[in-house]
Amino acid sequence: MEKFKSIIRDYPFIAFIIAFVILAFVPSVVFTDVYQSHLATLIFVNIVVAAGLNIVKGYCGQVTVGHVGLFAVGSYTAGTLFLYLGLGFWVTLPIAIIVTAFFGVAMGIPSFRLEGPYLALATLGGGEAIRLFIENGNFFRSTFGISDIPTPSLMGFNFDSPDRYYFISMTVMIIAVYFSFSILRSGVGRAFMSIREDPICAAAAGINVKKYKILAFILSAMFAGAAGAVYAHMPPGYIHPNNYTVIEMVTFLAMVVLGGLGHIWGGIIGAIVITIVYDLTRPLYKYQLLIFGLTIVLTILFMPKGLGGFIDRYFLEKRFKKKTGTEKT
Amino acid sequence: MNKLRNVFSVIVFTFGLVATSIAQAETIKIGVSFRMLSDVGYKHGELITDTVAKWNKEGTINGQKIDLTLYNDECKSEKGVANATKLAYQDKVHVIIGSSCSSVTLPMVPVSAKAKVPQIIPHSTSADITKQGSEYIFRVPVSSRFYKIVQGKFTAENQGTKIAYIYGPDAAGKDFALSLADYMRENYNVEPTYMVQSGEKETDFRSYLTKAKATNPEVLVISALLDETVRGLVQSYEVGIPKSVHRVTASIGSKIEIPMNAGSAAEGVTYAAAFDASDKRPEAKAFVKMIKDKYGVVPDHDFSQMMDLLDILEIALKKVKFTGDLAADRDKVRDAIAATTDFRGLASGPINFCKSGTPECRDGNRTPVMIEYTKGGKNFKTKVAGTVTFNASAGL
Predict the structure, then answer these.
(1) Which residue of B lies nearest to A132 if distances are taken between CA atoms?
(2) CB distance B134 to B112 below 8 Å
(3) Are A26 and B197 inside 8 Å of each other by CB?
(4) Where are the domains of chain B?
(5) pLDDT digits over B300-340, tens only?
(6) In chain A, which residues have their Cβ closer than 8 Å to the Cβ of B48?
(7) Is B145-279+369-387 a CATH 3.40.50.2300 domain?
(8) Is B77 in Cβ contact with A142 (below 8 Å)?
(9) Residue B387: partners with Cβ closer than 8 Å, 6 or more residues away
(10) Lowest-confidence range among A17-21, A323-327, B1-5, B62-66?
(11) A-B contacts at Cβ under 8 angstroms
(12) What is the pLDDT of residue A326?
């Protein structure tokens, strides 16, 4: 076991290959109906957005409330590329990532001079402006939405149902999480954390604060762009500006906060829990927002570092007990 | 590795929580997805719940129990698709009712078609819904393709062709204004004197109305959401647009809040709808009384369409011999609904469906009614300005 752990430490991508293999078997082994694949796809999309949001907010400490706008840019880039040029998923995905990265630059520039609630307001305005631009633009089919966006196909195999599209969203999620971990464990990740802790000290230590801030926004936007494109091509292939409102933004933020800000697994855990809590409370639609809000408030009250922090503490204590052979006093 | 293992445990455990229920042969399952956000939205939900409870109590559907599942889609397409998928594959319903908003119903159609679950629409009017050609879709309300013709013809022949349009960004409001303008262009060769889309949640339309006034229109179309329409009507008098200019709204004009909140500004407003609360037929009077007593509101055409839908479904479900084979039962329900002919309920005209999945067969109500408010305020009054029944392919 120790040897296996050491291999994983040296070659972390092996863990992701194992994760890929395990998740590939989940639909046939665990799922009992197609809806669970649909839900899993939504979870994967949310994980990609939340993992990206965790980079800029959790690691770099920049308050952004406009991320849903970047998600919309990804979706609508894919949607309009299909609508006007007839392009499919394999082309729209990389283009959506690149286009959203440019929007990430625009969203990140205010962070040079603004902080905290001021930056939050600026990014909130940016996100809402994107949605309103789409909603009022006939080019984007306005409030009629873009429909019939095709699902991807590969060597004649069409991923045209939730149980098939699961594999596309799962692959994108695994790649995104792998990159997220690689970034955050690298020198870039450490630079982000130093900016989060104290930007002046970080600058004094030779870190180009502006460069890393904008890099955090770009990387984060790329994740949102990828998620947006995956979301746009998800069966039945329909996007509408109503799906990119402030409520969705708050949900994304809740995922990161619940999972644990700055925790490497934070966004992932939060995305899984929030999506499932939302789904389980679907029949209780009258009380859904109450249950949803209460879950977040209680988590913040009793687990201020989120679920990630709670899990970390559990393992730390376990390791402590194992090393010292003592019970916690 | 420990962390990785724990995350996978969480994934597997939580997916397990979403475990499915198994279809029961003796129970008929109905799934609902529509906008249950506002007070009225909740009341639509209560109307379905109460009606199904009555069926169960009285054993209306051949003594079989009806299991009802209601989900809120918040008028968001993503949630509508998730609801339809969950109802079709996990809840294993025999029929789906929904949704209210066209932008939600549109993406739900491919889901129900793929899962082969009959879907019956209570409120959505967008013509594109039935144009998708699904054999499993049925629409109780009047399609926008009929609304635009009746409104266009009525306006051109009775009110004038010099029309100024102010419309909101919502799909229904925008669709109505643009379709009407297209119809006037194609059939009467007239361009709008003024046309503008207002912003989301914008409530001060006076600058638009002043510009519209400067074009000396004969007709002013205000096509937006409820509050915006009310404000537009009131403000049209504030900027001095005379009463002689005919005010037209989309089918949202049928909502009681329009005359209640707009007061005298609602007088003379015309709109096309599928039901008029001042309908003198005994069944309509009884329905208005029932809704007033039970839910405390005067029913608009959304209420009447929901009631008609439930009546059509009741008749169809009674005809079906359920076997416990879900796929076969769903097809039987589809065929039973498709067999609905000359259903005369609360709607302005008969509702007819037929076998093919074409708009001709699945846009059930082809009889929009033109209604005019003769008095605004709490004790508002309406009169029917005209009714026309179209042939099935009109407006396609």
Answers:
(1) B200
(2) yes
(3) no
(4) 18-143+283-292+299-365, 145-279+369-387
(5) 888 999 999 999 999 999 999 999 999 999 999 999 999 99
(6) none
(7) yes
(8) no
(9) B348, B349, B367, B368, B369, B370
(10) B1-5
(11) 136
(12) 66
